[in-house]
Structures
1.
Amino acid sequence: MKSESKSKSKPGKTKQKRKTGKIEIAVHIFILLVIGVTAYLGYEAYKTSHVDLVLNGESEYSLTVDEDFKEPGFSARHCVFYRCYDLTGSVVVLNPNANDIYGHKIGEYSINYTLSYLGETYSDFRSIKITDTTPPELTLEGDEIIGLYVGEDYDEPGFSAKDEYEGDLTDKVEISGEVDTSTIGVYTLKYHVEDSSKNADEKTRKIFVYNYSARTSEPIATFEEFEEYVEDLGLDISFGFRNLENGFEYTHNPDKVYYGASLVKTLDALYIYEQFGGPRDWNEYYLLQNAISFSNNSAHVSLAYNLGIANLRNYAESIGMLHHLESSETYADTVFFSDTTVSDQLIEWSHLWELTRELPNGNDLRQYFLDGYYATMNFYGCPPIMFKAGFYADTHHESAIVLDDEPYVFTVLTLNGYRADREIIMRDLSERVYLLNQTI
């Protein structure tokens, strides 16, 4: 009986031990869950934690001296999950140029914003640029247009520059260009100055270098001034100019009628080359050469007979000339010569230029007018010219194409051809037109 009661007490103790083990396991699991959740929450807090330093407004401001700068403000905060802590009061603003910025002083400045927090430094900056819109004033001393003779020295008359905000800028003036007084021409000097805001002013000075055969070195910078110069000579002179590249034209008395016995011979060459492509035989070549290159009247009359006066007259009308192989108002003795005008000459010589470039043998046509017989427009230093000139009684008539970089036609008709200084006057006028052509 005793042995049976002992065997019944052992199972009860086993159950108690098993219950205690389950509790311990549950505790351990709970602790692990707490550690896991804490780690997770810490990691999430780490991920969501951030410090922000934010500038209101723009990071760059460009102002004029008339505009005020107003600080747009800033903010700083530390955020964890969805909760943020304001740190704006801890931001340090460093603005060493505050007096210049708020005093509207021209320049480039920077305002720095710094936050030191939890061992870290956060910073940003704002740039301020203050400029003015008023350009400086550049002044040239002396004349803006100067005339010199070849060989004379050019002495810079001087200049000055000042700015409303920056004061004297004379030492910042830059000069470009050069003057070569050993060579006839128009030389341009450019004067340029900028203030610190890149506002600029610019001036130019032109130096006309004339040949010693000119009547005076007084500079003439426009065709209006040239016309006044011609009128001041007190002579009966009409002239015409046309730039063959850009078409610019200027005339004085363009429709005044003059006797042009030699200039009408140009029509012979135009007709022969445009209608037949050049002289058809040796005799026609010989006559044309003498009529144009040596202004031989007999050769012209022979050509007019052979070609037909009516044909020449119709051809002249077809290109727009109003006077051609008709009796002159002054000299009514023959129909082989005629009056002319500046307008007629510009038409005739512009057409001549077109043919020399368009015809396959245009260079042959050009050669007739390059001989140099009796020309008074070929001043010293003049480029090659195609020309035709003539005298009759008191008239002098001359037309030319000056083969400059930009070729041009220049024609002069005058009733003062008997003057002893006629050639000096013609070369002087031609030289001035050559320089004017460089300015247009």
2.
Amino acid sequence: MNSFRLFTYSVSIITLFIFQINCKWTNTKVPYKNNNNNKTWKQISQYFVPPEELKNKYGEYRSPLLFENGDTVRIKTDWEKRRIEIKKKWMELMGEWPPIITNQQMEIIDTIQRENFIQHKIRFFWIPNEQTEGYLLIPNKKGKKPAVITLYYEPETAVGLNNKENRDFAYQLAKEGFVTLSLGTTKTTKNKTYSLYYPSIENAIVQPLSILGYAAANAWEVLAKIDNVDTSKIGVAGHSYGGKWAMFASCLFEKFACAVWSDPGIVFDETKGSSVNYWEPWYLGYYPPPWKGSWSRNGEQSKGLYSTLKQKGLDLHELHSLMAPRPFLVSGGSSDQVERWIPLNHSIAVNKLLGYEDRVAMTNRVEHSPNEKSNRVIVQFFQAFLMKNNK
């Protein structure tokens, strides 16, 4: 082997070694590769393509591929710097998270056998000063399994214990072989403060929607300690309030492999009224209580961070871009109609720069509520990206 070939070979080995270490540090495997012969992928591939009239339409949303100083992101290494810049900016605005709770010790409260899975009622710390209870569903089949955390107002709905039609995401996924963990803000839902407040509702130092994302990140750590869970294949999903929660969790915590956001209102839109109400004090408009008439409040009247975000011209499409190249599905309803492809095109552009396609998907229905068809695509999406031999 001559000296030039030896040098080239050595550089290749070192580069591969560094790449493998980097993947280990970020807990991210080499991104998914399409399998066009896969039946599941063929069934959902249509949802990764915007309508012809909306392709390459970006609207007035500022491109995530522009640095704060106006310079353009041109290559992959530029994007890594820009990605850090976006996350740092949003974290500073919303409040920095406490350290992730990595030494999780889950407590099992109750266990029953249901159909083809075991249901555990569990308890763990999801923020440093507060425990929560949820439901862990583990399929009977042996071996490592993918997992999905589901988020809603309370944990019973997603496991099918509340008879709320088509909101039983955790139950449906568990029957298909996924480990699922269903969580909800039961206590604050009952008292109509709805969210989490750290360290207290009187003096929250992190916007409530962001601390919800932090709580879901700690739930990821719970799942990661379960022997039969594949930690490289943990997703997150939620509907409406849970959709907002899942969106912030997946965008701000890189260990989530993929995500489904069911009709959360993926960008700010005051024309949608109370359904896309990020100005509320339990989302991005926190101020110390008492809160009066907050459901009728609009963005201009907001006392919290929301009005600042609007004044700065910021919108949630920047957070979406933090998912790249991890895939996500918007299961759109009345809050997220087909025109939402315009902000989603910015995430498509980021993925294209990184060399990836088929990372951004959307389905659309008329009603806010999920239906059998939209739920079938949700299951197929997780099968395609988390199940072995699918995608």
3.
Amino acid sequence: MTNLRRRRCVKIVATLGPASSSRETIMALFEAGADVFRLNMSHGSHEETARRHGMIREIEHEVGRPIGILADLQGPKLRLGVFGDGPVTLAEGDGFRLDLDETPGDARRVHLPHREIFEALEPGAHLLINDGKVRLRVERCDGESAETVVEVGGVISDRKGVNVPDVVLPLAALTEKDRRDLEFCCALGVDWVALSFVQRAEDVVEAKELIAGRSAIVSKIEKPAAVTNIEAIVEASDGVMVARGDLGVELPVAQVPQIQKKLVRLCRRKGKPVIVATQMLESMITAPVPTRAEVSDVAHAIYEGADAVMLSAESAAGEYPVEAVATMNSVAETVEADPIYREIIEASRTKSLGTTAEAIMSAAREVAETIKVNAICCFTHSGRTAMLAARERPRVPILALTPFKTTARRLSLVWGLHCAAVEEVERFKLAVVSAARVAKRDGFASETDKIVVTAGVPFGQPGTTNILRVALADERAIYEGEPA
């Protein structure tokens, strides 16, 4: 069994794709630092997805470490129709019409096959074409067309994407394709499902009903409506992704950093994992080293306390996928070794919300930081206790111990958690013994080192964390101690 203990707390999510579809490359990505693999359902067939999923599980078995798998649903994609004579150039001040007429477009109009957009538009609203490169302002509209004025000109062509930032569209977050993909991925056994273009908490609730507990949900925050409804969305979700690409299209780019900071702090307060994503090491798609600005961007997310940072095209389609993961790993280790990192993390720590479990985990952190303790060991069934430990952002490693592989895999996304699947126990003393074994086996403690162990008694009931013990990582000493 390979012991690949990470020397950092932030987790790395790596997207798989054409550049990383072989077992050898996936293993290399894991060894370079990837903790969770993202399967992008916008590309590739179910057969390709199943093949990659199978290879990840084979590697997981080989290395003896839980590996998380996140399936990212495509969501509703809004696109133009086609043009009769190729791309057209729109100039500032031009009039341009979008409508439901399927006739190929020209320099004056084009088909927009989305009636729901026309039903939601109002005069003054904006339409952004091709990632915001072309900007149109609506002058007049009805349920079947919109007359617009070009505010920012440029070239548009067949099937370019359309963003509508100013209105909440009456679109379900799950398309028919998403529903098929969702069922396929849940049956396959993915650990997380990322829900695209969430606008309201009801979108998350709908997906949860379909998932029926088979996976956890990450809500991708990429629309202004989601930012407006963020408290309710975070409450309904198991985790959040700050999807900065579409956010930067639909909102002024200057607002994206402050939204990122707000979301990271909100998720930390709620004890739910947050991923910062999109264009983190974009130049490494074609270059072996990143720009200094990209390194600073990754570092900022880590300093802020994000649970995970994500690579997209860098690892999926780039020329240097393994180097991109290794670079992100190096940046993370360097940031977390900086004393200023601890100052920022501890200054932004929020108070407990008042439950017994939160009080126990807050006490575990304080004990670990008051006396010399090598690790906090949490026994958990649902994963919630371990997430509360991570919420505290302690200075010592956290071992998340669970009898369920599914829980261990899901927790691989969470800040600071070293996850291990262990045998079920019925007595707290046996839990302490199991914690000591894992701490020694995985290099966190020796027999003369102390560990903090937390669990819920009676065992097997989620949400009952109510006990804390400091013990030596020595099985004999534990057995010889007082009964527990």
